[in-house]
From TrEMBL:
Keyword Hydrolase belongs to the record: yes
The entry's keywords: Endonuclease, Hydrolase, Nuclease, Signal
Gene3D superfamilies per UniProt: Endonuclease/exonuclease/phosphatase, Galactose-binding domain-like
A GO MF term: endonuclease activity
Residue ranges of domain F5/8 type C in the record: 451-613
Entries under InterPro entries matching the protein: Endo/exonu/phosph_ase_sf, Endo/exonuclease/phosphatase, FA58C, Galactose-bd-like_sf
PANTHER family with a match to the protein in the record: PROTEIN CBG08683, PTHR41349
Stretch forming the signal peptide: 1-25
Organism of provenance: Nonomuraea bangladeshensis
The UniProt record lists the keyword Transport: no
This protein's name: Endonuclease/exonuclease/phosphatase family protein
Organismal lineage: Bacteria, Bacillati, Actinomycetota, Actinomycetes, Streptosporangiales
PROSITE patterns per record: FA58C_3 (PS50022)
């Protein structure tokens, strides 16, 4: 249907079945179509369900600024699968990708028209825990990582940069950000945590916006954990910005990994969801209550937008609802996280999840870029906003977990693929009112298109473990023999010795090789490699995760006779616990040999190697 919503605002709400005929858009509004796998269709049909699609908007090219807001909803289930806010002056716009849902859904779309100069101001936000002020927690004493970190932030070019773990790097960061900038593009440095010793100067803000007031420590919560400032947009309107670092004790990363792995393979959920939720209850929930009920109301007396950025050390409750129970790494589990729900109940929106509505397609992992992402996607760094007057639009948001291309391949990159153990979160907001609208490209997250709690196995039939044997050039006796990689048990694993420069003949450095004998020559469709899944308990009985040994880069070789070898594929894998498949497309071989050139921690560990024929 089409209805008039107010001056110069048209709302078009189209009820769609995947095979229904959409309503006709009225005059002066936009017409919508869908691009799925490169094919443009007016109305999606059953063949588009499950495909990666975008929405195309076509409308007036009248030189004015048109704002288009759209969402794909399944109202009967309460699900939103896609949101987008787009701006155009030429009458054409395209949304970011989403997965076409099955069954009845709606496209909600509306457009508004603004005169040039009256669309609003784009504001880029960035939040990041720098890990010891960019020193990799003291592991880099050369200053090179901090130098590269500053170069990366300059590329992002945020208007407001929320820093956690500044720890003495704040002067170097300010100088590095302002070097070579014009006078109207300089950053202001806003200390949040005030301390004489660098190791206690935790929270900091860097911003191009004018600083009207700094919000100092309140008795309800220390400035080590929370504080902020009133900032002024170019037209003088205020926004309130707060930096956050929530308690990191009682991390749920290992318990969630443990619970998902056990559930995935048919074991009881352990720890229980109730136990896992208790980790938030220990200290974090009390901090949230102090922030929301005491500190923010003390400082914020108007209806200006409020933004928060930081390391919340807490998972998003929106990611773990029933809507995403079958997303990769969720294993059917739902978790009603209490800490982050407090902020949502207080009117705060999660910028990343708001614009990247599908937690399966856009998991947004931020922990841990260094020690591995585990099996359950951990998104613990957040940009939140509250907007009581409906003036804020989320244009785009992304997470960064990899060094810039020019910083890759060096000695730091080998062990530290990002500049910190946390990913960075970046979001582009627009505050409506005076301003040209979006004036630079919007940041966007790339889809991680891997539907299903566990990726479907490759085509073909798995070779039974009873027909496989394995040898390796290095292994840990008793607990890490090569045969454990072909025993059919995902909870056992092959593990190399750790490299030992003093005795390289027994404990060699990488590359490491593991060779599988399939008993006879076979025609192979693929081979699946499963990194080690096993979780352990600490002395206190708490789950721990150790992804050391997870392969990252290597070569798969094949042989008929075990003497002459041919390279079948170069292989690279993410730092995520889950199956990694190599397609072989009918290759003939009896032997498979994986050479691991780079594994986490310098070791090699594999739970299962499964050939398919």
């Amino acid at each position: 249907m089409t209805r008039l919503m107010g001056r110069m605002l048209i709302a078009v709400v189209v009820l769609l079945l995947p095979w229904a005929v959409p309503a006709t858009a009225s005059a002066n509004s936009f017409v919508y179509s869908y691009r799925c796998d490169g094919k443009v269709v007016t109305t999606p049909g059953p063949e588009q369900v499950g495909k990666l699609c975008t929405i195309l908007a076509n409308g007036p090219a009248d030189g004015q600024v048109h704002e288009i807001r759209m969402a794909i909803r399944q109202r009967s289930l309460g699900y939103v699968w896609m949101r987008a806010t787009l701006y155009t002056t030429n009458g054409k716009a395209e949304s970011h990708p989403f997965v076409m849902p099955e069954g009845e859904f709606e496209l909600d779309a509306n457009d508004a028209v603004f005169a040039r100069g009256q669309a609003g101001t784009q504001v880029r936000l960035m939040t990041w825990n720098l890990l010891g002020g960019g020193t990799l927690d003291g592991k880099d004493s050369t200053g090179e990582n901090l130098k590269q970190l500053i170069e990366y932030v300059n590329e992002v070019d945020p208007d407001v940069f929320f820093v956690v773990e500044a720890y003495g790097s704040e002067t170097a960061i300010l100088q590095g950000l302002n070097a070579g900038r014009s006078a109207n593009d300089l950053y202001n440095s806003v200390p949040i945590t005030v301390a004489e010793e660098a190791k206690y100067r935790n929270l900091w803000l860097f911003t191009k916006l004018r600083v009207a007031q700094r919000y100092t420590e309140r008795p309800e919560i220390t400035d080590f954990h929370f504080g902020g400032a009133k900032l002024l947009l170019p037209d003088g309107r205020p926004v309130h910005a707060f930096a956050v670092w929530s308690r990191h004790e009682d991390s749920v990363f290992a318990p969630m990994h443990h619970a998902v792995v056990n559930t995935q393979f048919g074991k009881p959920v352990s720890p229980t969801i109730e136990t896992i939720l208790g980790y938030d209850d220990t200290r974090r929930n009390a901090q949230g209550q102090a922030i929301l009920q005491k500190v923010v109301p003390y400082y914020v007396k108007d209806d200006a937008p409020v933004i928060m950025g930081g390391d919340f050390n807490a998972w998003s409750y929106r990611d773990w609802t029933g809507q995403f129970a079958n997303a990769r790494g969720h294993a059917g589990l739902t978790v009603p996280w209490t800490y982050t729900k407090q902020f949502a109940d207080a009117g705060f929106y999660d910028a990343f999840r708001y614009i990247n509505a599908d937690a399966g397609l856009y998991p947004g992992r931020t922990w841990s870029t260094m020690s591995g992402f585990g099996v359950a996607p951990a998104r613990i760094d957040h940009l939140l906003f509250r907007d009581s007057k409906g003036k804020v639009r989320v244009l785009g948001a992304r997470t960064d977990v990899r060094r810039l291309p020019r910083h890759q391949g060096g000695y730091l990159d080998q062990e530290y693929p990002f500049y910190s153990d946390h990913g960075a979160v970046i979001a582009d907001l627009l505050v409506t009112g005076a301003g040209p609208g979006p004036d630079r490209p919007v940041v966007m997250e790339k889809p991680e298109y891997a539907p299903g709690a566990w990726p479907a196995p490759p085509a073909g039939t798995p070779v039974p473990p009873s027909e496989l044997s394995a040898t390796a050039d290095t292994y840990k006796p008793v607990s890490g023999e090569a045969g454990r990689a072909v025993d059919g048990d995902p909870f056992t694993y092959y593990h190399s010795r750790y490299p030992d420069a003093a005795d390289p003949t027994v404990s060699p450095a990488q590359p490491h090789t593991i060779t599988v004998d399939m008993g006879r020559e076979r025609v192979l469709s693929a081979v699946r490699f499963l990194p080690k899944l096993a979780t352990a308990l600490s002395a206190a009985g708490n789950p721990v995760v150790n992804m050391t040994g997870t392969p990252l880069r290597g070569v798969l070789e094949i042989s008929i006779d075990g003497t002459w070898w041919a390279q079948a594929a170069n292989v690279t894998w993410p730092r995520i616990t889950g199956p990694n498949d190599v397609r072989l497309n009918g290759v003939k071989a009896r032997y498979l040999r994986l050479r691991v050139d780079n594994g986490m921690g310098g070791a090699t560990a594999i739970a299962e190697i499964t050939p398919y024929e």
